[in-house]
Every structure is written in structure tokens, then in C-alpha cells.
TrEMBL record:
Taxonomic source organism: Dromaius novaehollandiae (Emu)
Compositional bias of kind Low complexity: 727-739
Gene: HHIPL2
Top-rank lineage group of the source organism: Eukaryota
InterPro entries attached to this UniProt entry: 6-blade_b-propeller_TolB-like, Glc/Sorbosone_DH, Quinoprot_gluc/sorb_DH_b-prop
Biased composition (Polar residues): 665-679
Stored Pfam families: GSDH
Descriptive protein name: HHIP like 2
Signal peptide from the UniProt entry: none
């Protein structure tokens, strides 16, 4: 390689950037590669890091992404300056104002003729920070790569800019080396700004219909599979059956293992060393693969902040060796908010289980404040209990949705009250606790929070009901509803005789699928969080046996639900820091945190004693909320137990792309946000520089005008104008006389935002 050119390239990527001691990932040698556009060859072991990355992955990372490594967003307020990106991009109003101020500072050095000739070029270049493809334009998809000083410009556009305004280069960057080598050499300058893939350079990226057709929407592949991403949140869990929050503004997450242990996870991602509750000596659980017994349900009282009450559902063996289900109430410890008082247990309800399977297990509070209990039909196969089975027998509590008031007591001495509007309180042949019936074994139900603005859908109860041998179904629970089992399975008859005599008023599923899709449904949640606006209204669920993730979208005109598969870990769509490409197969449960973000738990070995379970969080790579909108302010809690920092086990997509095969274990380092980033144990030849920080702050007033920005930028003394001489197309623009340009602003390492 030509050494002077090598130095120019390296200066272009590293000028004005501080170099902290950051561990580098190893790069593969790629001697003899060349840039197809410039014809410049290089030897990879001696070249700067960014070109090494391009050798490995080419244009795999060309996807919408901002300079803070997050997806683009819809600005909450109108952009006055970079108006091309006011509908979707990487700038909020505050950042837009900052870019406008920088523009006017530069233009103060240019005479009126230069304004006309170069103003549009300079504005275009500065505003590429707001492009939805800003990270790609600046080679910033990966935090480990150096950042360009200037965005990637298409060669023709760059040539025009250099021909007309080459003297403005020193105003856009203060790097002396680039100024000296490139102000008079168009080819060198435009080769530096060249991008590996021509579709993404500016302004081609604006004209590419394939890139912009569905920009900002949930990405779907050719088969219609929704492309979502995951982050690993917890690991080493023994069959994690649930995650719940206390709705007490602390944003703690309580994760329960099937054998009867509940762990506390704090907002920074750490876990407390001592469990919230440990009743594994009471809970009936075995190491058998697929055993359905154990700790199965938990719900916090709606007024937990004030009364400290919560409720649990678990299997146990009584003194007569009879298997039972117990639903009981406990309280938090008076001396430690992160510990339950095991001696406070108050039994609410016990049910004898005739078989070891179909144990139900869901507990939740509805928007009405009542506790809903979801029981299985008693087990075995085909609900063989009694003439019509437990599920159709309203005098039995198995195969039901029960509703009770835990804040009262019944006149007959029961430790709970029957809500007066329960549907069968006047039926002498029915148990008054019954709210709905005809269910087989509902595994995981959830309450819809409703649309964030309109609250439409609020209070709906979604459940996944596991089928016998033909169909799995998703139901919405309604008061008094008969869900058909054992007469029906999904939309079809199961017991032909019962089916012929069944009521026409049976509640049909909103969706059912056969064994060609999956074998054991795991119910999920309707997404109502803040961080991924595109997902609002999607019901996301999965299948335990084959690990399939799916989503249902309601057609509001027909009230029909359309199913789409979810594909995780696409190398291109999910090439963001912290995103992973795979998950453990057996999907046990879904969860929602206090902010409404969605998670699921799965394991690679479904045994209650096997520590192979993990917790994952869904992320939409196509669009996020505007910076600052989803910022959490957790109420602090005192912790007496030791905090164990989260240590990820899954390799991120960027690590898989960057790291060659190695037998050495990766070194780990924790970031200030509590998210641990795993780096390769091998180091590259050079240290990557610090990246530019794109501010993500509260937007300024929406009424602020560009003229005010300009006036604010002119508080300094008037500067000598740069004279621009109009030139013909055959005569290169002369060097322009100018004062010392304004100092380049300090560029800081961007922090990952916890929204």
C-alpha cells in the first residue's frame, strides 16, 4: 500500500477523537483485498480497524441505525433545520438546533457568494447525523470501529462539493493532515469518503426505494416473518416459570423457578444473592423432564405498595400423600423489602389433583381488582373425570377460570369473598367462584393494559390453552364463557357426542393452530410498552415444544386476528450492540415489566433442577421511541443482600461477526449502565478511538425558529468573511482566504440510553 495514503485514511477516521484504552476484538487477515471504486489495495494486519471490519462482513451492517447505536425514531417535535428527517431519523429538536448552530458558525466564515455556492452542500453534510442510516454513513454500526469525521458521500456528489467548496473542508474538520492532503486533491478526498456499498452513500441512500419503502415499520422477510431482536437479561435459571413486577415504581423484577425459589432483579440488571422467597422444601417438583408440577403462579396485590401482600400457586403433597394445588397469601418482610415473610402464609384455596399433569398455574389481578385463578382439568388425557369431564362441570373447580375477592371473607368462613357479579352466584349447581369454564390447561394468561393513549383493549384477558393432540388455541376470557373443552378442541370437535349437544354460545378461540405449527402453546402478552412503538397492539406468544415465536394482529374492522411468525436474530436487522442471534428452545413463559416491555423465558433442558433457563427481552430494530421518552425513574430500594452483576453467556451478533473462531473464553467488562459487553480476549493492532456522541436530551420548545438559532450562534464577534470566486466548470475553485475556523467540538463516547 501507498504509505501516505494509509496515513490519510487513518487520520480521517481518528482526528479529533480521544483514544481511551479500549479492548479490541480480533480481526481476520485479508491481504490483497482492494476497494473496487478507488483501486487502492491494502494489507489488513497493518490497516486501521474499520477496513478490517469491512473485509469480514461487507455490507451486512447496512441497516437503519443512529450514532448512539440505537434504531431511528420519529421526532416528537418539528425539525426546523434538517427538515428532510423530521418524520423519521436520528435527531430530536435539541440535536437539530445544535446542528443548525454549527452550520451558522461555519457560514459566518463564508462570504455571500459562498453561501449560495456551498451552503446546501454544508447543510447536507452536517444533517447526515440525522439520517436514519447515520451509523452506516459514519461507519458506526459497531462500537468497536472508528468513526468517520465526515459521512460517506457518493463519488459524483463528493466531486461536485470538492470542485466548488474544497476550501470549506477545513471548516468541517480541524484535522490538519486532511486539510493539507485533501483540499487540493479531489481524488484522495473522495476516496476517503467513499463507502463500500454504493446504495448507502449520500445522496443515493435517499433515492433507494428498496431501503426507504418500509422505513420505520416492523421489518418482515419475504415470507412475512417479523424481524425482532433480543437482549439477554438473565441466565442460569432453573426452569423460570414466571417474571412479575410489584407495580410499586421500583421496577424490580421477580423471577420464579419451578422448584420454588423467587429471585429479585434490580433495574441495573443485577440480581440479589438472597432469594425473595424459598419454599422448595414444600413445593412438589421433580427433576423429570417435562414434569408440570411445581411453583406455577404468583401475583402481587394491586395495593402491594401499602399492604405488602402477594399470592402464590404451587403443587404440594399433603400428609396423606395426596397431590394438591395450593393458592395462598403471603406478606413482604417488615425488615427487608426484598424478602418475603414465609411465616405469613395464609391458605386461600386447596384443590386435589387427580393426576400429575394439567395443573394450570396462572394467577393475576384484573382491572376490577379481583384475583383470577386458572386451573387445569385434572390431567390424564381427554378430561375423563365424570360424565362430562371436570371442565364442563360447573360444580368442580378444575378446568376453570375462578374469580375471588381476596380483600374480604365469605359468610361461610372461606378466607375470601365471592364477587357479587360472578356469573354463577345464583346457580345452585355451580360453584360461585367460577368465572368461566370449559378450559383444558391454560398456560400463561395476561391482562391487556390497553392502548397507551386511547386505552382501547384495556382489561382484556388473553390466555393460551394447551390442546390434547390436534390444536392449540388463544382465547380472550369473558364472564360466564364456555370455552368448549372437552366437547371441542380449537375450532373442531373432540368428543363428538358432547360436541353435537354443545351450546352454540361456546366461546371460540381468536386463533388456533395445528401440530404442523406447534404442540404446546405458551400464552403471551399484548405489547403496550414505550420503547418499541411499532409493536403496540401485537399479541406475542410462542410454542413450548418447538420454540416458535408468533404474533397476532387484530383487524379492527373485522375483529379477526392475523398470525405472523417472529424471526429472531437476523444478522442484518439485529446488528446492534447487545443484540443476540439465538435463544433456548423450550419457551416456558412470557412476561411484562413495570414499564410494559416484553420478555420471555426459555430453557435448553426442561427440568426443574437444570440451571439452563434464560430471560430475554424483545427489541424492535426498525424503530424506537424518541430519546428520553421512556426514561425510567425507579424508586430506590434498600438492599441488604449482595448484588450479583449480570454476566451474559450468549454471544452478541456483533461479536459473532467480529470474532474469528477461538477456543479462548471471552473477557468480560461492565459498562456504567449495568449492561455487560463481552469482548474478544485477543487484541487488535490498534486501539479504536472514542465515538462521537449524539445528544439524546429533552427537546426544546417546538416553536423555536431557525432565525433564533442563527442569532444565538452569532454572539461572538463578527468574523472576516471567506471570499468565494465563481468558477467555470473547467476551472477548479481557488483557495479561499479565511480566518482560523471555529474549534471542533469535543466528541465524547456515547452511552447506551436506558429508555
Amino acid at each position: 500500500m501507498n504509505e501516505p495514503y494509509h496515513e490519510e485514511v487513518e487520520h480521517f477516521y481518528t482526528s479529533d477523537l480521544k483514544k481511551p484504552p479500549v479492548e479490541k476484538v480480533n480481526v481476520w487477515p485479508c491481504t490483497g483485498r482492494s476497494s473496487s471504486s478507488s483501486g487502492v489495495s491494502f494489507s489488513c494486519p497493518h490497516v486501521f480497524f474499520c477496513l478490517s471490519l469491512l473485509c469480514q462482513i461487507g455490507n451486512l451492517l447496512g441497516h437503519p441505525q443512529c450514532l448512539d447505536y440505537g434504531p431511528p425514531f420519529q421526532p416528537p417535535f418539528h425539525l426546523e433545520f434538517c427538515t428532510a428527517y423530521e418524520n423519521f431519523g436520528c435527531c430530536d429538536q435539541e440535536r437539530d438546533n445544535s446542528i443548525a448552530a454549527k452550520y451558522w458558525e461555519i457560514m459566518d466564515y463564508i462570504d455571500p457568494q459562498g453561501h449560495k455556492l456551498c451552503g446546501a452542500y454544508i447543510k447536507d453534510i452536517l444533517c447526515q447525523e440525522c439520517s436514519p442510516y447515520a451509523a452506516h454513513l459514519y461507519d458506526a454500526e459497531n462500537p468497536q470501529t472508528p468513526l468517520r469525521n465526515l459521512p460517506g458521500l457518493c463519488f459524483d456528489y463528493c466531486s461536485e462539493f470538492h470542485f466548488n467548496c474544497h476550501s470549506a473542508i477545513s471548516l468541517l474538520t480541524s484535522d490538519k493532515h486532511i486539510q493539507e492532503c485533501c483540499e487540493t486533491n479531489k481524488t484522495r478526498f473522495c476516496n476517503l469518503l467513499n463507502l463500500h456499498d454504493k446504495d448507502y452513500c449520500f445522496p443515493n441512500v435517499l433515492k433507494n426505494t428498496a431501503l426507504n419503502r418500509n422505513l420505520g415499520s416492523v421489518v418482515a422477510d419475504r415470507k412475512g416473518c417479523l424481524q425482532l431482536c433480543l437482549t439477554e437479561v438473565a441466565n442460569g435459571l432453573r426452569n423460570p416459570v414466571l417474571m412479575v413486577h410489584a407495580n410499586d415504581h421500583t421496577h424490580r423484577m421477580f423471577v420464579a423457578e419451578q422448584l420454588g425459589v423467587i429471585w429479585v432483579y434490580l433495574p441495573d440488571g443485577s440480581r440479589l444473592e438472597e432469594p425473595f422467597l424459598d419454599i422448595k422444601t414444600i413445593v412438589l417438583a421433580t427433576p423429570w423432564i417435562g414434569d408440570e408440577r411445581g411453583f406455577l403462579g404468583m401475583a402481587f396485590h394491586p395495593k402491594y405498595r401499602y399492604n405488602g401482600k402477594f399470592y402464590i400457586y404451587y403443587s404440594y403433597m399433603d400428609k396423606k400423600q395426596v397431590e394438591k394445588i395450593r393458592i395462598s397469601e403471603l406478606k413482604v418482610s417488615a425488615s427487608d423489602v426484598n424478602k418475603a415473610d414465609p411465616h405469613s402464609e395464609r391458605n386461600l384455596l386447596e384443590l386435589e389433583e387427580p393426576a400429575s399433569n394439567h395443573n394450570g398455574g396462572q394467577l393475576l389481578f384484573g382491572v376490577d381488582g379481583y384475583l383470577y385463578i386458572f386451573t387445569g382439568d385434572g390431567g390424564k388425557a381427554g378430561d375423563p373425570f365424570g360424565k362430562f369431564g371436570n371442565a364442563q362441570n360447573k360444580s368442580a373447580l378444575l378446568g376453570k377460570v375462578l374469580r375471588i375477592d381476596v380483600d374480604g371473607k365469605s359468610p361461610d368462613g372461606k378466607p375470601y369473598r365471592i364477587p357479587p357479579d360472578n356469573p354463577f352466584v345464583s346457580d345452585p349447581k355451580a360453584r360461585p367462584e367460577v368465572y368461566a369454564y370449559g378450559v383444558r390447561n391454560m398456560w400463561r394468561c395476561a391482562v391487556d393494559r390497553g392502548h397507551p393513549v386511547t386505552k382501547k383493549g384495556r382489561g382484556r384477558l388473553f390466555c393460551g390453552d394447551v390442546g390434547q393432540n390436534r390444536f392449540e388455541e388463544i382465547d380472550i376470557i369473558v364472564k360466564g364463557g364456555n370455552y368448549g373443552w372437552r366437547a371441542k378442541e380449537g375450532f373442531e370437535c373432540y368428543d363428538t357426542k358432547l360436541c353435537r349437544n354443545s351450546s352454540l354460545d361456546d366461546v371460540l378461540p381468536i386463533f388456533a393452530y395445528g401440530r404442523n405449527v406447534g404442540k404446546s402453546v405458551t400464552g403471551g402478552y399484548v405489547y403496550r410498552g414505550c420503547e418499541s412503538p411499532n409493536l403496540n397492539g401485537l399479541y406475542i406468544f410462542g410454542d413450548f415444544m418447538n420454540g416458535r415465536l408468533m404474533a397476532l394482529q387484530e383487524d379492527e374492522k373485522t375483529n379477526k386476528w392475523k398470525k405472523q411468525d417472529i424471526c429472531i436474530g437476523n444478522t442484518k436487522a439485529c446488528a446492534f450492540p447487545g443484540m443476540i442471534s439465538s435463544y433456548s428452545k423450550f419457551i416456558i413463559s412470557f412476561a411484562e415489566d413495570e414499564a410494559g416491555e416484553l420478555y420471555f423465558m426459555s430453557t435448553s433442558y426442561p427440568s426443574a433442577y437444570a440451571p439452563h433457563g434464560s430471560l430475554y427481552k424483545f427489541v424492535d430494530p426498525a424503530r424506537r421511541a424518541p430519546p428520553g421518552k421512556c426514561k425510567l425513574k425507579p424508586v430506590p430500594v434498600k438492599t441488604k443482600s449482595k448484588r450479583i452483576p449480570f454476566a451474559p453467556r450468549a454471544k452478541t451478533i456483533l461479536e459473532l461477526l467480529n470474532d474469528p473462531p477461538t477456543t479462548q473464553p471471552p473477557a468480560k467488562s461492565s459498562s456504567p449502565t449495568g449492561v455487560t459487553r463481552t469482548l474478544s480476549s485477543k487484541k487488535a493492532k490498534t486501539t479504536p478511538p472514542t465515538k462521537i456522541k449524539v445528544s439524546a436530551v429533552k427537546p426544546a420548545s417546538a416553536g423555536k425558529k431557525t432565525q433564533k438559532i442563527k442569532a444565538k450562534a452569532k454572539h461572538h464577534k463578527p468574523k472576516q468573511k471567506m471570499k468565494v470566486t465563481k468558477v467555470s466548470k473547467t476551472t477548479p475553485a481557488p483557495s479561499l482566504t479565511k480566518k482560523t475556523p471555529p474549534p471542533t467540538r469535543t466528541k465524547k463516547l456515547p452511552q447506551r440510553k436506558e429508555q
